[in-house]
From TrEMBL, chain A:
Belongs to the binding-protein-dependent transport system permease family. It comes from Aquibaculum arenosum. Part of the ABC transporter complex UgpBAEC involved in sn-glycerol-3-phosphate (G3P) import. Probably responsible for the translocation of the substrate across the membrane. This is sn-glycerol-3-phosphate transport system permease protein UgpE. It is a multi-pass membrane protein. Keywords: Cell inner membrane, Cell membrane, Membrane, Transmembrane, Transmembrane helix, Transport. It is found in: Cell inner membrane; Cell membrane. InterPro entries: MetI-like (IPR000515), MetI-like_sf (IPR035906). Pfam families: BPD_transp_1. The chain crosses the membrane at residues 7-31, 82-106, 113-131, 151-171, 192-213, 248-269. The complex is composed of two ATP-binding proteins (UgpC), two transmembrane proteins (UgpA and UgpE) and a solute-binding protein (UgpB).
UniProtKB/TrEMBL annotation, chain B:
The lineage of its organism: Bacteria, Pseudomonadati, Pseudomonadota, Alphaproteobacteria, Rhodospirillales. It is found in: Cell inner membrane; Cell membrane. The chain crosses the membrane at residues 12-33, 75-96, 108-128, 156-178, 205-227, 266-287. The gene is ugpA. This is sn-glycerol-3-phosphate transport system permease protein UgpA. Part of the ABC transporter complex UgpBAEC involved in sn-glycerol-3-phosphate (G3P) import. Probably responsible for the translocation of the substrate across the membrane. It comes from Aquibaculum arenosum. It is a multi-pass membrane protein. Belongs to the binding-protein-dependent transport system permease family.
Amino acid sequence: MVENRPWLTFLQHFVLLCGVALVVFPIWIAFVASTHDGRSLVSGVIPLLPGDLFFENYRTLLSEGMAGSGGGPVWLMLFNSLVMALSIAVGKIAISLLSAFAVVYFRFPFRMFCFWIIFATLMLPVEVRILPTFEVVANLGMLNSYAGLSIPLIASATATFLFRQFFLTVPDELTEAARMDGAGPFRFFKDILVPLSRTNIAAIFVIMFIYGWNQYLWPLLVTTDESFYTIVMGIQRMVTVADSYPRWHLAMATTVLALLPPVIVVVVMQRLFVKGLVETEK
Amino acid sequence: MHKKVTFGGFGFPLLLLLPQLAITLVFFIWPAAQALYQSVLRQDAFGLRTTFVGLNNFARLLSDSSYLGSFKVTMVFSASVTLAGLAIALLLAVMADRTIKGATGYKTLLIIPYAVAPAVAGVLWYFLFNPSIGILAYLVRGMGYAWNHQTSGTDAMILVIIASVWKQISYNFLFFLAGLQAIPKSLIEAAAIDGAGPWKRFTSIIFPLLSPTTFFLMVVNVVYSFFETFGVIHATTSGGPGQSTTILVYKVFTDGFVALNLGSSAAQSVILMLIVILLTAIQFRYIERRVQY
């Protein structure tokens, strides 16, 4: 602290508390709503403190789902989201480690060309090429499958870049020593490079897990079979239903379930995640 | 930057690149090429005949009042989300940068929205502002304004802006904080010794030194508000009432998937791609320039 100004410290706490309130308030209200019964929510102003139906509401939701919303039980949606998020995170890390290794540690024709093709994906978010990508996936028969949900989202340049930047900082002496001891490229990759990248892998994992879990448009397009619905896309149907029937408590419980896993991941792995995020994108 | 020590071989590195190249070509490059190709074609109403129409699809779009309207909506939306998001996050980051008790606790809570999906963020605020049961709608009504985002375009726009800004606060906050912490403390101390108060120090030292971060975040936020906010809008207002919250990405989706107007949707995709390429180019130019400092 540069100087001691009590009023400034007070102002800081005040502003930060307002910020925290802004951030937490919507989530708190959603949680509160999920612990009441549907009727008490419609019959007046929403209460600010939790009710006593926490276990009952969540049990109904997880095992039976919400009647009339066209979705299955919510545990299945949670499972689908988990499979999708994990496949995207693991898949991305695997293919980007390999391609970054190839681009940094080898000299071969068309090296820069390959690099630029990968790089181009940065400019093509799924939202701008919705229809043609959908057609490709449909032609490959990948609609309503875990492969269709995850593989098209696996290739992205961000992870490749982070690993490339990191590999460039690994001292050449390590490579020389490994070569002198008779290690081939694969041995070097497996026994030296990957163990050295552990922190980066963990950071990318957090970012990609959240990216995968939070996908909305893509699952909306490639799933028509409700047994493949993910939780984030399933919410929209519930909200539409909740507007006409008093089922807001279940819709809000789904919302809480949809945001809980990624929030836990971010909070638990906070330090890694912040480091990874700020370094990847700069 | 290149490595001095490398491995030999040609087949092995290509084998390593193969998975990523294959996925990129099949799911990125090929669909993008398809979009370009379809943007110069037009299908008849039954999808039986396809004719080459040149730039006709683009010409039609640019004279289509609903497309131009959507452009305007996107501009208003994007500008509001970017400005409000940056301002709030900067304020919070400046406050969190000075060492105070409980700073870590504040930070942990402030990064939560990053983990929340845009669609979920939309639903959270949609519930708060629900005209019949929402607590904020109730408060606003108490102040004498009849809030209803189902009938009022302005209210709907405000709702999606708030939800989008809320979701993006953490991201901006983290980058501003990293930027603030990179400013040498000696500069600030020197200014304090020369008698500059906190406000003076902020306007004449901290804010100018933060400008690379601010610029970077502006580009990122514009991209965010153009594309990622699809979930916010689809889950809450569905582009309505009328066209009042139909941003460009949402229009590509409805024209392509709901109205099945392939040529027009493809042409819109191409325009969006051009916008992304432009934004990315701006960002990279700026990054290159900064590296030389």
